[in-house]
C-alpha cells in the first residue's frame, strides 16, 4: 500500500482540500 497520492497533497487547510475535491469532481463530469 502506498500513500504517494495522499502525500502529494500536503494541504492541512480544509478549504484547500475542498478545492482539490472540486477539481476532482470537475474531471469526473
From TrEMBL:
InterPro entries with a match to the protein in the record: P-loop_NTPase
Source superkingdom: Eukaryota
Protein name as catalogued: Uncharacterized protein
Naturally occurring in which organism (per UniProt): Nymphaea colorata
Amino acid at each position: 500500500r502506498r500513500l504517494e497520492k495522499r502525500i502529494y497533497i500536503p494541504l492541512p487547510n480544509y478549504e484547500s482540500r475542498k478545492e482539490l475535491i472540486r477539481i476532482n469532481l470537475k474531471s469526473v463530469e
